[in-house]
Design goal:
With about 220 residues, this protein is an alpha/beta fold. The chain has helices at about 45-60, 125-130, 150-160, 165-180, 190-215, and strands at about 5-10, 25, 40, 65-70, 80-85, 85-95, 100-105, 110-115. It holds the Pfam family DUF5994.
Length: about 220
């Protein structure tokens, strides 16, 4: 269980002097059909040890960070709050199905979703995963909009383009199920963003599993 006490950590900047030390790769903007903004290869599973460098690296794009959502199944040394450079950042553990990604939400609602490369991944494989992130010019931050769970479900259903009422209802159920775990969250403003992150991952995994099943057939 996470420690309920805030952990005070001084942030440190990532050094990029050597190419092989680069552990974060972000695309400038998402293309249609993508659900992540980049990849991150932490050195360990100790979240509070790894966050300082990461938060420093993304601050130029997000501004001050308000919340980090992480997969409970992957990380150790977690806490309810994290203090970096005098600012309190909320840390929110997500269900195990989201263990391969991390969502970082800025104070203005802009957010990034990063694929987490396991720390014990072989160096060559990790670099290949980082290099697979497309490099595109940044198109500008999207406007922060407070969206209801129903609006999130509608957006995800429209993105799929199935025009299937039964499928739309299933996605809405997934969104409501994801939102239920945040009923007591201190920052309700970010719940729609977290719901979209969780359900988007679920849809992506479903599509991936279906494609693998078709290949095996």
């Amino acid at each position: 269980m996470p420690d309920q006490c805030a952990i005070v950590v001084r942030t440190a900047r990532i050094e990029h002097n050597a190419p092989h030390e680069e552990r974060l790769r972000m695309s400038g903007s998402r293309a249609s059909g993508e659900h992540v903004d980049g990849a991150w290869w932490p050195r360990s599973y100790r979240l509070t040890d790894e966050l300082p460098d990461l938060l420093t690296a993304v601050e130029g794009r997000l501004g001050p960070v308000a919340l980090v959502g992480y997969g409970r199944a992957r990380w150790t040394d977690t806490a309810a709050q994290f203090i970096a450079d005098g600012r309190t950042i909320q840390l929110l553990g997500l269900s195990g199905e989201d263990s391969e990604s991390l969502i970082i939400i800025g104070e203005d609602g802009h957010h990034l979703t990063l694929r987490v490369i396991a720390p014990d991944t072989a160096q060559e494989a990790a670099f290949l995963a980082l290099d697979a992130v497309p490099r595109r010019a940044t198109t500008g931050a999207e406007a922060a909009v407070a969206r209801s769970v129903v609006e999130v479900a509608r957006k995800l259903a429209d993105h799929e383009g199935c025009d299937d009422a039964e499928r739309d209802a299933e996605i809405l159920d997934w969104c409501r199920e994801a939102a239920a775990q945040f009923d007591d969250a201190r920052i309700q403003t970010f719940v729609p963003i977290l719901v979209e992150h969780i359900v988007n991952n679920r849809i992506f995994r479903e599509r991936h599993d279906r494609a693998r099943g078709a290949e095996q057939d």
